[in-house]
Amino acid sequence: MDLGIYKLFFFFGAFTIYQTSGKVFELNKSNFATFKKSSRFSLVFVDSNNSDCTRCRQMFPFFTAASQNFEEDRDISFGRVHGYTLINSSLTHQLPAVYYYPPDAHTAERMYSDITVDNIMETIANNMYGYFGDTKKTYAIDVNEENFDEIVHAPIQYVMLLLYDKATDEIVTMINEVAEAFRYDDEIIFCKLNADRNKEFADKHFKYRTPPKIFWYHFKLKEEKKSVSRN
What we know:
Blueprint: H1 3-11, E1 15-17, E2 25-26, H2 32-37, E3 41-47, H3 54-68, E4 76-82, E5 97-101, E6 109-111, H4 117-128, E7 141-142, H5 148-153, E8 158-164, H6 170-181, E9 188-194, H7 199-205, E10 213-217, E11 226-230
Parallel strand pairs: 2-4, 3-4, 7-9, 8-9
Antiparallel strand pairs: 1-11, 3-5, 5-6, 8-10, 10-11
């Protein structure tokens, strides 16, 4: 484990350790055209047609995190395709890739910068002529029963997950600040799960543990759980 990870655990020294989305639309032939027309600016994460693209699995959570910053913005939409066919069958860039459709454009353009929350927001700002400098960015990913396996279990990186409820939602600010500090490190992602909104899933998956709890998932031992409870 590198120095950055040790510093992370030091930051959460107030916890006791035990071993343990935004909306991204899935696109296909039937809904791709409608998706492009549904907003002024759309971004598409180009994934592999199969599950052997480990880099795709590693970077998709950051695309999901970026989408959370625009949940209430109907002018901007996020989607995912598997393979280049729906965008342009002649494209053969290395996967994963992010393409976007500027306002009134019919042809997608590629985002050549790294897939990070900051770069995605900068791409949107440059094309929508907006300013997000004063916007409080979200870096910690909202997870639920629908995306839990893909975001938390599947990626080949470390995952720190906060289980919280309405009584402990002030800790969300803290986990997001830590996620921001590690925003350029694709070896770790930070997630949060609202136990009130996902009560049945949280009770079943986390064995009725009372929030707040922090769970640590080692990328090689995703089935072994490490929970962290506040003293």
